[in-house]
């Protein structure tokens, strides 16, 4: 059951990325671009979660990589928010 939830989270974040990217291409708003990049990172994070928890054995731990990707994704959004504030 947990694998289904992990997969649905990855699919949802991918859908958000695609919708935000399409909206950015249509409008050119930079905040949509930064949000799309953030959700691209969240998608990678969720895919790593699926790989880590479902496909790899317990002896392999990708939690540090997942945290680094999540940090990079959030930092992209923070940079976008600060950039738009100026």
Topology readout:
Layout: H1 2-27, H2 30-55, H3 63-85
So how many helices? 3
Radius of gyration: 15 Å
- The chain-level structural class is mainly alpha
Secondary structure: helix percent: over 70%
Straight-line N-to-C gap: 45 Å
Uncertain residue segments: none
Shape: elongated
Number of strands: 0
Biggest sheet record: none
What is the averaged pLDDT score?
A: 95
Strand content: under 5%
Secondary-structure element series:
HHH
Would you kindly provide a written description of the structure presented here, covering whatever features stand out?
The chain has 86 residues and is mainly α. It contains 3 helices and no strands. The protein is elongated.
Protein traits:
86 residues, mainly alpha
Provide a short characterization of the protein structure.
With 86 residues, this protein is mainly α. 87% of the residues lie in helices and 0% in strands.
